[in-house]
Design a protein that fits this description.
This protein is 39% helix and 23% strand. Bound molecules: zinc ion (2 copies). One zinc ion binds next to α17.
Amino acid sequence: MDKNQILKEFSADPDRYYKVKLFEEQGFIRKSCTKCNRFFWTLDPSRTLCPDDGVDTYSFIGEPPTTKRFDYTQAWKKVEEFFVKNNHTSVSRYPVVCRWRDDLYFTIASIVDFQRVMGSKVVFEFPANPLVVPQICLRFKDLENVGVTGRHFSSFCMIGQHSIPDNGGYWKDECVDLDFKLLTQQFGIKKEEVVFVEDVWAGGGSFGSSLEYFVRGLELGNAVFTEFQGELGEHTTLDQKIIDMGAGLERFAWITTGTPTAYDCCFGPITNYLMGKIGIDADSEMLRRYFTTIAKNLEIYDDLSEVRKQTIKTTGLTKDQLNRIITPLEGMYLIGDHLRTLIFAITDGALPSNVGGGYNLRMMLRRINGTIDRMNLKLDIDELIDMHIDYLKDTYPELESKRQDVKTILNLESQRYVESKSRMGKMATKLKDKGRVPSVEELITLYESDGITPEYLKEVEVISEIPSSFYAKLSDLHQSDKKKSMEYLSLENIPETDMLFYKDDPMEFEAKVLKIFEKGIVLDRTSFYARGGGQEPDHGTIAGFKVIDVNKHGGVILHELEGGFPSLGDTVSCKVDSIRRANITKNHTSTHILNSSARQVLGSWIWQHSAFKDDDHARLDITHHSSLTDSEVADIEKTANQIIAKDMSVTIENYDRGTAEQKYGFKIYQGGVVPVKSVRIVSIEDFDVEACGGTHVKKTKDIELIKITKTKRIQDGVVRLEFVSGPIAQEYVKQQEIIQTQNKKEFVQKEIKEKTREENKEKTREKIPTFIEKILSEESLESEGINSKGKLCFTADENYDEYFHQNFGKKLVAKDDAAAFCGIFESGPTIRVMIFAGDKSGVNAGKIANEIASILGGFGGGDAKFAQGGGKDTSKKDAAIQKAKSMILG
Ligand SMILES: [Zn+2]
Ligand SMILES: [Zn+2]
């Protein structure tokens, strides 16, 4: 929809769309900006320019329009107090990880808290009316502005004021009246300072007028009145009109403190602490001039580097001032901002990774680390986390309980950054040497396989700009497999199947055949669980035909059969394979138990990433930063089996979605978003509560046993647990025991064999002198495993070790130079040959060693008198023995 067209239309009829009671009562004058023609409302008759173009823009810096100063925390207290006094319910913030929408990773506006997607429609569910909420919103679009412009944040608190006109709420008149009073009465801003600008809002098929309110060029809030749907001209009024007023808490604090930037009054003690640490000695007049000019230039130039360049020029900043003050300040603000965002995101269960929403988090931490490196700072991140949380916990008490988890994750990530830095450096040099700028596809590969961010490549000047399509392409890559398209079936006029598995769940029942498709049949009622939520479908028989697959198409269940179909209209008897179902059910409840056990053992960041439950095996993928250690796996399994031993009750209740969310929080969405109004809540007493449509045991003892069979890190930030439960787990344990006993037996046998061999070797060493005598007197030693011919002898007997060969051979030829000896023996993975030859024996030791070694695939060395060698090709052992024997004995 064309916003300008709507604005033109609405502004042509200001009485209808913009003129609220307050304007009349107070005598606001409607004006058109002499520079940009936009319409605005003011009490100051001399004002000719809109707030963006006005001469007073950002004049509050150094000279705030209020007598009282409120920092971030105090400003929220003032806002909350005002709205509560005026009949609003103050609602706690919602998670910044948007678990209730699968089209958003993060909460980007306060109104998102109350939006639920049903099919292609967005519906609103308000826990109170009217209400106010301090919603932390994450936005990563303008990261390069953060720290530089004085007012851009990667996360900020949107004061959400929301109302539905009926049911106790209000509409335009009261909204604008409240906002005006908030500014003038509660914050003490002079009436003449407040300017309202006419605007419109459009999105998601609906639209309406809006009034943005400004004080000295700073937009403090925007009241959107969502009123219409459809295309302009053919639009209709919404059944449910909604007020969506969003205001920036950071800006409320800023306007009353008049600090050079909004960062100075919103990070608690951190700004001063960092200034001291870095040793910035800034003169406030210089900063006032600099940041006021930055704000003005942001309205003039599109490009941030141009904004900065022009500001330096107009304010006459020296290069020294820039390097000594501005650049370090920017870095400091960036650290404060990014860290605050990471604290909220990790508290709410997000993990830095290189996929999905985790990508932005990793990027931010890398930017913090990069800044610390560049500025050569000695900073303790833990200390900064403590300062942030200590300051914020007044408004957001939930941060306290995750303090340690935030530290754990950020320390681990920082460590990974350090480890990857040298590797990244080498890659960057390589890329630079190529002298060619990598393409977007190459950048994606570099990021995905080597973890090299485009930010880093820009920093080291491999690329000059991050291609604008980079993030879009990357996120496409990670979203393409999100939704599998269902085969289209024409289901009109087929009533929804009565799902008996949600009722008394009979394993044998009768039903009527309502429809036959090529792919399967539809019954009026069924106990066959249809594939869903990672749970595999039931098998069994319908009218004697085997059921091989069951799928849900909307509310209609399709049974895929093997071998034929019953006739349309028949009443058929159906039988669910109850053993298969029981095993699947045990695995499903086990997934819930393992998920919460993993969270208890590993940390609050554990969420179910996905799950799969079949009858003989199952798997649970959880969000975790590292591979699991053996002891972690053992602990998770132990915790899970303790829950089984406690024989907890598993209860299933249906709730209205809003009630379920308020009662249990968003952790119920472990299996993803629930697109229905009524939520099925499965609770294992107070141990685990999830929204889930699967089948479950009644008591945890029914599961008997859970065994984790394997774990694996399947992608960055996701670990897979493969497991079995119930009788399959018992069987698994039995098998494991058999394997273990077998292994033990083999081990003992091997040990005995080894021992006897060692003993034999000992004994044979003692026999060396006797053997020498016998050989020299040309007696046979066949019985001892030694072949001889005259004074030449050979052995490959396993009872003789290296010591024997060495000593026997050496002493033999020393006693008689007509004697010679060749021995072959195993030594570790190699087969070795050793030859001693007396001068008059006629044997060439070196020649034999070379020949035998080459047969064994190795090398030999030595001279005619003594040589040795060997190789690893054990399959040639016999050949080597035959050859050696014939070479020495002829
Ligand atoms: Zn203007
Ligand atoms: Zn479930």
